[in-house]
Amino acid sequence: MINIDIGATAVAVLTLFGIYALMAISLNLEYGVAGVPNFGKALFVSIGAYTAGVTYTRLLPLLAGLESIHPCGPSMGAALQLRSEIMATQPAAGFINLALTFALAAAIAGAVGFAVSYVTLRLKEEWFLALVLLVGGETVRILVRGADDLICSNNGISGVAQPFYFLRDPGASSFLFMLLALALALAAYLYSERLVRSPFGRMLKGLRENEDVTRGLGKGISLARAQIMAVGSLIAAIGGVLFALNTGFVNTNDFVVNLTLDVWVMVVLGGIGNNRGALLGALLIAIMDRLAQIGAIILNMGGSEIEFNYVRFIAFGLILLWMLRYRPGGLLPESRLTTEAHEVVKRVIGAAK
Amino acid sequence: MPPALLTTSLVNTIQIGSLYALMALGITLTFSVMKLPNFAHAEYVTAGAYAALIVSLSGVLNPLVIMIAAFAVGALTALISHLAVFKPLEGRDVSFYTLILSSFAIGLIIRYILFTMADYFNLFDLRIAIPLQILFREGYLILSNLFAWVVPTSIVLVIILTLLLNRSPLGREMRALADNIILARVIGIRVERVKNYTWLLVGGLAGVAGALWGLQTAVHPLMGWGAIISVFAAAILGGLSSFSGTVMGAYVVAFSENTVMLFLNVNYGLDLAFKPAIPFIIIIAVLLLRPQGFTNLIKRAGDLGR
Amino acid sequence: MLRKLLAILLIIALSTMLGAAQDDMETYVLGVALPFTGSFGTFGQDFERGIDLAVAQMNAELEAAGSAIRFETASADTEQTPEGAARALQTIVQTTGAQVVVGPLTTSEVLGAKQFADENGVVIVAMASSGAAASIPGDNIFRVIYPPDTFASKAFATIALERGHQNMVVLYVDDPFGNGMNEHFIKNYQARGGGEVASFGYAPQSTELSAEAAAVSAALAGFGDGAGFFCVCFPGAAEAFVQVAQIDPILTSVQWLGNEAMTSDEMLEDPGHAQTLANANFVTVSQSADSTPLTPIFHADFVAMFDKEPGIFTNYAFDAANIAMLTMLAAGNDGAAVKSMLPFISNHYIGTAVQAFLDENGDQAIASYGIRQVTEDGSGFVLIGSYDGNTDTITYT
Fold it and tell me: Above 70 in pLDDT, residue B214?
């Protein structure tokens, strides 16, 4: 029996859209604008999530004026109860904690992105960078599992609740959380639009198109790449904080290569080099994921012999291939940048004619 | 390290290294001739393993027949993915990442087709019905019939491949393609035909590797995907261009995952659960410190087929 | 692509109308959140069959009794990740209005689904998660049937000592289940007078375990005579391990203990594997087979419906679905009422393996296990005794 709660579905899909949009915009800045092929997106997203895991277990009790309990091992249950109580009764502590989490996650991820970019400048070929970032993300994930005391790597940390939990009304709190995610996505969009149109952004695009020419113009290439990696990484980490809050649980199993590939698909789908394309890609993936799940529920209800959850991935692959082949620029291809100088030149040419 | 452990781990290194070599050669060949880092290579391995499993379940237990079936299915899967996916992208100005993403996408499609099939016919975690036996035992050294199949098969196939590339007209054409595709076209090489043969060869090797890998483990739609990073590490150690470098790389990766891992475990208590990180670390280290891999260590380096 | 989206929307609209057409019946939706993709996809498929059997039987009985209520399942894929489990649960609830969901499989998936379930009053009935991390009082998660591994680890420790193993080597999967089992086994074994334990964790995604087998073999050799081996492995990895262990002279000369996953059908189908387990005198402690009248009935019905043997743990999925449905029949299709009533119903449910009785965390409190040993020819397993976890006693038959 299908009985779709359209309101709740829309809130869930739009929340996911906000989170995906942050990841997609960050990749679009790095790859679409600066040409840095970040195949390690899951790593930077996970930095945000792990930071949330640490602040919710260490910082939050302090902010609420209570003593923190070690979150792993035998005291796990007691620590979880403490977190849930604070989130339910002391909204102020929850909000301050969240603000500090965002700041901390952004700072750590930004620093890591900056450093990674410098290390990887040694790489001979550009696509080596893609490979190093891809396997680097997985390596960190495997090594983090060894850091058991920090984020209880094996069991994970639950009770990383979203900040409106204290309302005790799932409809209202998830709606407000959606607004938060959308607001952050919008902020990232506006910021990156400004960045793209700035002289710095134009230089980056020049760098992407032809490194030698840009170098010839005397621009500091390494620094520019490092800066864009820092900005992209911090946006991804903010997405990672929201990703953790949306599930309420932080666990290494969530940050696998598939997450990175999903973000790439969003950017390719929407249009590389175009922020609005990144938004569109994020929205389409959020919607398609939900539609495919609904489709699987319906077809399985019909008693089909074939497992639709497998077909879902086959369809996903086919759509991606179709896009890569027939719409390589994405649904919203990159448009030419125009500046005031362009306009002036155009006017001059027009006048001359 | 106790001598028994050292011996066993070295035998495992040779056995698993030979399997990695078979898989990695295909990746090097695709990269040299087609300029394509193909992540769907994992699925040709899995497809070959399933072909071997189905043949063995139907009652045919002759290893040669099983391997030929695996070769055929792997080759066909590779050719189809070339004709349907990679060939149409040629000639357009596509970036490397478009190619990588396409290979992920076709890999995803093949993997879940295999999942659907395995689910429908109930073929999860089964084993190819060739029993394992001890052939040779002397002190700590124990060699199984699997070892006797895997190692000579790999060596023979590597030799055949090298001869094919260096001595046959097809091999010359392949090398010409690897060097300069435009020039190859100009001097009248039928590029498409050569590419088709290359894909058949790449997929066939992967398929045979899959059949043998299925003897080593259990057959599952994720088995190729589970080994692909180790295999890529081997190919990268070979600089993605040299055959001998790739084979050496395969043994180095297997050595690190077995002997080195066990050494670290025994002496420093490093948990075996960190084993999957080893090929990753090898890839990062090679690309950062020595992107040419082993190629400069080998005479006449850089030439495909050496 | 727009056409594809429209097609899916059309299907949704059509089935909504079809659903609305038969409104003289009352349909309760039973959600099913399981990993259908990923390396545990096999589990998901098997569990779904167990749940489908329970629903089919229940509907047949309801029809015969003239009831207007029917059950229907809505299943979604958790992709074997915590975040995937959260999305699966969300989709099931928001698409069908389901109030009760059977699943997910592993402890980390259960924890991933927890926030949404608690906030929205949806009840989760998990069938096989046993990690201590999800033992939380008062939440919406019930883990019926399968008791926490603290009990089984005691049984394994006692058997190891009864078999005269002065030292033990453990190979365990490095996840909440394997870690918990390993930790508790070491603690109990040593508390009961056991000697040293060497344990090796393997990465959960591993498909090839020759290095692990070599390490276990060397550790056994280091302990000398009288050492035993205990394997805490998942299916797939278990077969891959036995495949390489069967030619190891040390591993084939010691006695083995192992968890239930070592006893899959696939394992005994291979003659070499079956012989290896037989030579190793393999013993497993699992929820006791043949301990309730429902056990043979479930088995026969399952084979009749699907023409195949039920996989391991599949009966727990069947039990979990039955407990969920019985509670819904008593309490109605309402999460809060189901949450309040579920312990009462499950405490009165007979079970295919063991009676369910829940503790204050909503976890199974009855720890009644069967001890099974592989037959000499490796053709199957026979029950050789039972273990009562609540009194910590082993009885051999």
Answer: yes
Contact A142 B288 (CB under 8 A): no
Distance CA C274, CA C280 (A): 10
Residue C142: the pLDDT is 93
Q: Put residue C232 in one of left, alpha, beta given phi > 0 → left and psi -120 to 50 → alpha.
A: beta
CA distance A1 to A301: 8
Do the Cβ atoms of B226 and C206 come within 8 Å? Answer: yes
Spatial distance between the Cα atoms of B279 and B260, rounded to a whole number of angstroms: 12
Q: Residue C104: is the preceding peptide bond cis (ω within 30°)?
A: yes
Token code pair at residue C26 = 């009352």
The residue segments making up the domain with residue C241 are: 149-287+369-396
Instruction: Answer yes or no: do C45 and B119 touch at CB < 8 A.
Output: yes
Same domain, C203 and C122: no
Contact B108 A325 (CB under 8 A): no
Among all residues of chain C, which has the CA nearest to that of A255?
C81
- Range with lowest mean pLDDT among A6-20, A94-108, A216-230: A216-230
A31, part of any domain: yes
Query: Residue C331 is part of a domain; what is its CATH number?
Result: 3.40.50.2300
| φ, ψ dihedrals at C369, nearest 5° | -120, 155
**Within a domain: A314:** no
**DSSP code per residue over C339-353:** HHHHHHHHTT---SS
Chain B contact partners (≥3 CB pairs within 8 A) = A, C
Q: Give the model confidence (pLDDT) of A338-351 as tens digits.
A: 666 667 777 777 77
How far is C-alpha A340 from the geometric centre of its chain's CA atoms?
A: 33
Per residue in B46-82, pLDDT (tens digit) is 999 999 999 999 988 888 899 999 999 999 999 999 9
Domain-located, residue C300? no
* pTM of the entire predicted model: 0.89
Q: Is C365 exposed, middle or buried (0-12, 13-18, 19+ CB in 10 A)?
A: middle
Q: B158, B247 in Cβ contact below 8 A?
A: yes
In this predicted structure, the answer to whether residue C289 has a pLDDT above a threshold of 70 is no
DSSP state of C246: T
The answer on C167 and C251 residing in a single domain is yes
Q: What is the pLDDT of residues B88-122, one digit of tens each?
A: 887 777 777 788 889 999 999 999 999 989 888 88
Count up the domains in chain C and report the number: 2
| Structural domain boundaries in chain B | 15-222
User: How sure is the predictor about A216, in pLDDT bands with cuts at 50, 70 and 90?
Assistant: low
Instruction: Note whether B92 contacts A261, CB cutoff 8 Å.
Output: no
Q: What is the chain C residue with the closest CA to B222?
A: C39
Q: Which among A104-113, A156-165, B260-269 has the top mean pLDDT?
A: A104-113
Structure-derived torsion over alpha carbons of residues B61, B67, B69, B75, reported in degrees to the nearest 10: 170
Say how far apart CA C132 and CA C111 lie, in whole Å: 11
In angstroms, the separation between the Cα of residue A222 and the nearest Cα of chain C is 36
Q: Do residue C172 and residue C107 come from a single domain?
A: no
Residue B230: exposure state from Cβ atoms within 10 A (0-12, 13-18, ≥19): buried
Q: Would you tell me how many other CB atoms lie within 10 Å of the CB of residue B137?
A: 12
- B305/B166 Cα distance (integer angstroms): 7
* Phi (first) and psi of residue A330, to 5 degrees: 90, 180
